[in-house]
Amino acid sequence: MKKKILACLLILFPIFSLGIAKADTVKSKYIIASDSSFAPFVFQNSSNQYTGIDMDLIKAIAKDQGFEIEITNPGFDAAISAVQAGQADGIIAGMSVTDARKETFDFSESYYTANTILGVKESSTIASYGDLKDKTVGVKNGTASQTFLTENQSKYGYKIKTFSDGSSMYDSLNTGAIDAVMDDEPVLKYSISQGQKLKTPIPGTPIGETAFAVKKGTNPELIQMFNNGLANLKANGEFQKILDKYLASGATTTSTSTVDETTIWGLLQNNYKQLLSGLGITLALALISFAIAIVIGIIFGMFSVSPYKSLRLISEIFVDVIRGIPLMILAAFIFWGIPNFIESITGQQSPINDFVAGTIALSLNAAAYIAEIVRGGIQAVPVGQMEASRSLGISYGKTMRKIILPQATKLMLPNFVNQFVIALKDTTIVSAIGLVELFQTGKIIIARNYQSFKMYAILAIFYLVIITLLTRLAKRLEKRIR
Ligand code: ASN
């Protein structure tokens, strides 16, 4: 009898514990960051939607556990930074559980096991790690494959080239810019099954289990919900269905499109909505940041010609500091650095929106150059004019407004137009923080269809047309002002 009761308890315990472990959502919505091109885990399909094992899995788990999610796809390295900076609550991106990562992340139960493996072109003669001497191997920044390559570099004597996303890495392999890539085995195998002319000459090396992660010590309920949801999906067969959907032969492909994406026309037809939305972001970024930059730039420009030494000094420091920092670093600092710093002092996550961060970085950057344009313009007006006006008893402010600035403005105008064109082109740089403006949009499309030549040509023409139109418009305005 006793034995029977004990057996019953043993059977019932796991069932109860599953029920008891149900965690409650704390946030109204969880932001989940992911890779941008890591098929079959995450990739864009031909209708420009992100799909893949990870996307289906996290959505199914959220539904099963009743929590809301918003998914962003900035790329693996950026997704990692986003979670560490508190921009996102969790990351699902075919992420390998490594000892080093356990120091900064809390992981869920594993849902896959992957190796890292070397990929080369079908025609390549590389057949062992030994053949890699003096060759260049590409890898995605921040990945477990990168750690593997770095650890074995001195042994095999290859060079490592890091990429921010899979699509540019595979593009470089296809064009021969690099000799091999190191990536997760299912990913390489999947791209081969999709018709990429690649091969994997060496067996893969285990890099660990694949799991969902949150920043260490944060969102414990999210991990709990993920685990509970995963267990439920495994039990009801839905998890296997998701795997089969992408891994079984004849599975969903990246290119189920009916439109032929190998022609420029086909590319435009299938992606024009996405391209236009990217263009919208690019224009908004350029226009808003330039408007802000003009205000800040004029203030600092006026400071730089002020009779007060302290104001001149402030302006000089501003221009030197901002001009001395590359725009990409400035954007990364604002987007990832500052929130991370604030969190380390206050313990509060304080993410900043990527568009806002990009706008601030672009505004500060352009403001430094505009301040110099303003200083140059004012100093180009002969000093005699200021002296003459002042000796007639007219105040500094009035002389500036009525005599110096009208002449200086005419001198500055062409430089302003120039600076605006630069600002518009600089928007491509802030795509590094995962902002999906025009350039990033193009890269995402290429990640799906590998049409880099035609797609970059389309992007170049987009920028060319927009910049030409805007400069024409600016020239007209300039004439009117004159
Ligand atoms: N398996 C890779 C890693 O964990 C993830 C990725 O490249 N998306 O580093």
From TrEMBL:
<feature type="transmembrane region" description="Helical">
    <location>
        <begin position="455"/>
        <end position="474"/>
    </location>
</feature>
<keyword id="KW-0472">Membrane</keyword>
<keyword id="KW-0812">Transmembrane</keyword>
<dbReference type="GO" id="GO:0015276">
    <property type="term" value="F:ligand-gated monoatomic ion channel activity"/>
</dbReference>
<keyword id="KW-0732">Signal</keyword>
<dbReference type="Pfam" id="PF00528">
    <property type="entry name" value="BPD_transp_1"/>
</dbReference>
<dbReference type="InterPro" id="IPR000515">
    <property type="entry name" value="MetI-like"/>
</dbReference>
<dbReference type="InterPro" id="IPR043429">
    <property type="entry name" value="ArtM/GltK/GlnP/TcyL/YhdX-like"/>
</dbReference>
<dbReference type="GO" id="GO:0006865">
    <property type="term" value="P:amino acid transport"/>
</dbReference>
<dbReference type="InterPro" id="IPR035906">
    <property type="entry name" value="MetI-like_sf"/>
</dbReference>
<feature type="transmembrane region" description="Helical">
    <location>
        <begin position="317"/>
        <end position="338"/>
    </location>
</feature>
<dbReference type="GO" id="GO:0043190">
    <property type="term" value="C:ATP-binding cassette (ABC) transporter complex"/>
</dbReference>
<feature type="transmembrane region" description="Helical">
    <location>
        <begin position="279"/>
        <end position="305"/>
    </location>
</feature>
<protein>
    <submittedName>
        <fullName>Arginine transport system permease protein ArtQ</fullName>
    </submittedName>
</protein>
<feature type="signal peptide">
    <location>
        <begin position="1"/>
        <end position="23"/>
    </location>
</feature>
<keyword id="KW-0813">Transport</keyword>
<dbReference type="InterPro" id="IPR010065">
    <property type="entry name" value="AA_ABC_transptr_permease_3TM"/>
</dbReference>
<feature type="domain" description="ABC transmembrane type-1">
    <location>
        <begin position="279"/>
        <end position="474"/>
    </location>
</feature>
<dbReference type="Pfam" id="PF00497">
    <property type="entry name" value="SBP_bac_3"/>
</dbReference>
<dbReference type="InterPro" id="IPR001320">
    <property type="entry name" value="Iontro_rcpt_C"/>
</dbReference>
<dbReference type="InterPro" id="IPR001638">
    <property type="entry name" value="Solute-binding_3/MltF_N"/>
</dbReference>
<comment type="similarity">
    <text>Belongs to the binding-protein-dependent transport system permease family.</text>
</comment>
<keyword id="KW-1133">Transmembrane helix</keyword>
<keyword id="KW-1003">Cell membrane</keyword>
